[in-house]
Amino acid sequence: MISRRSVAAIVGAILVSAVIFGIAQHRNYIRDFEVYRTAAQRALAAEPLYRADDGGYQLKYWPVFAFAMAPFAKLPLDTSKVIWFVLTVALYMWLVVRVVDALPGRRLAHGVLIAWTVVLTGKFIVRELVNGQIDVVAGALVFASFLAFERRRPIAGGLLAGVAAIAKPYALIMLPWIAVTQGAAAIAAAVGVVIAGLLLPATVYGWTGNLELLRSWYVTVSSETPTTVANRENISFAGLWARTIGWGPAAGVLSLVMSVVSLAVAAGVWWRGRAMNSDIERPAYLDVGLLLLLVPLVSPSGWDFVVLIAAPAIVCLVDRFTLMTPAWRTVTVVGFALTSFLIYDVVGRAAYIALAGSGAGTIGAMLLVASLVNLRVRKLA
Questions:
Q1: In this structure, are residues 88 and 128 in contact, taking their beta carbons and an 8 Å threshold?
Q2: Which CA distances in Å does 66 have to 63, 261, 302, 359?
């Protein structure tokens, strides 16, 4: 039976979502979803997907993504926007609840953790909703993949991870972890879905046409990189160096080095978790949370709201907060302050521009990564 508190929370979420949708519609937001819908219409008509005349609203995902959005292609725009908005809200609510449910050795009350997760991801979900983005979908698919692995269903987990990569290519970051920790069947399923997705558009465009689409995708993404990383809301390593020394070979090398080092640290965390398996209950939870938190740092398209998909990391840090030393609590608080609460309307225009432009979001995410690593070193998660 659903408690009154749960009903109140659901009703509150619906009301807040309705307000956000009304504001987004009034200001002509939810533009990213329109890009997806337009791409689906073009794909069904076998038209070019990547067009320079789309300006800043070019499709930047694999061609198969356009086919995945086909159900929205025939619906009226306003109707499809409502459906997408509701789907995003529902998946966000599912993700928050399931991430809290799955946390091993939970110390805080269920409702307390959910409340903190909503507070710390509130900035990101609002940005996600008003832009009509798909990160919640990708994050939910990755976490559903993790849950399948936890239930000893490697093929299902691999399939879900592959679908997540089709939704957002950054989900490919999960493949090395799957290969090392989940076995051959899991990685074969994930890679199989990705390969099938890359080949699927050939059924409409033909083999040569599909190769041209993939080439156009690469050209589009690579040509957009300088503009993308220069935006102050980009918290990737590439964005940090682009705004510090200007985008060029040096910035590219420095961001690559930081990405490699970060992924090497993540690999060390996995290995330590496997070695200390008897001391840590289900270490994979922190492993996945750490990988998802690294996504906005290592991906050149690492917008700040992508931190939303790192909900497992956020839940883990909040739950273990009282077990940290005072120094690490400070690190964690500063990390959250620079990511979750660096908001234009909160800190003011001048402070926001100065902090965001100087890479505060990147530093904040790096501090949260360090806090997660500390939890593993101290055998707390």
A1: yes
A2: 6, 34, 21, 33
Residue 287 burial by Cβ neighbours in a 10 Å radius (0-12, 13-18, 19+): buried
Residue 175 exposure: Cα atoms within 13 Å on the Cβ side:
18
Q: Amino acid identity, residue 27?
A: R
d(CA 361, CA 337): 9
Which residues, 6 or more positions from 241, have their beta carbon under 8 angstroms from its beta carbon?
Answer: 247, 250, 251, 252, 254, 255
- Beta pairing partners, 234: 303
pLDDT tens readout for residues 192-241: 999 999 999 999 999 999 999 999 999 998 887 788 888 889 999 999 99
Tokens coding 339: 């990511």
Q: How far is CA 116 from CA 208, 315, 368, in A?
A: 50, 8, 15
Amino acid sitting at position 36: Y
Question: How far is it, in rounded angstroms, from Cα 78 to Cα 59?
Answer: 20
Q: CA-CA distance, 197 to 15, in Å (whole number)?
A: 37
**156-189 per-position pLDDT tens digit:** 999 999 999 999 999 999 999 999 899 999 999 9
Closest CA to 300 of 84, 60, 2: 60
Place of tokens 């879900």: 160
Dig out the tokens for 108 from the structure: 């805080």
Helical spans, DSSP H, in the chain: 4-26, 31-44, 63-68, 77-102, 110-131, 135-150, 154-167, 175-181, 184-199, 202-230, 237-245, 249-275, 284-298, 311-319, 326-339, 344-347, 349-357, 360-377
Which pTM does this prediction carry? 0.91
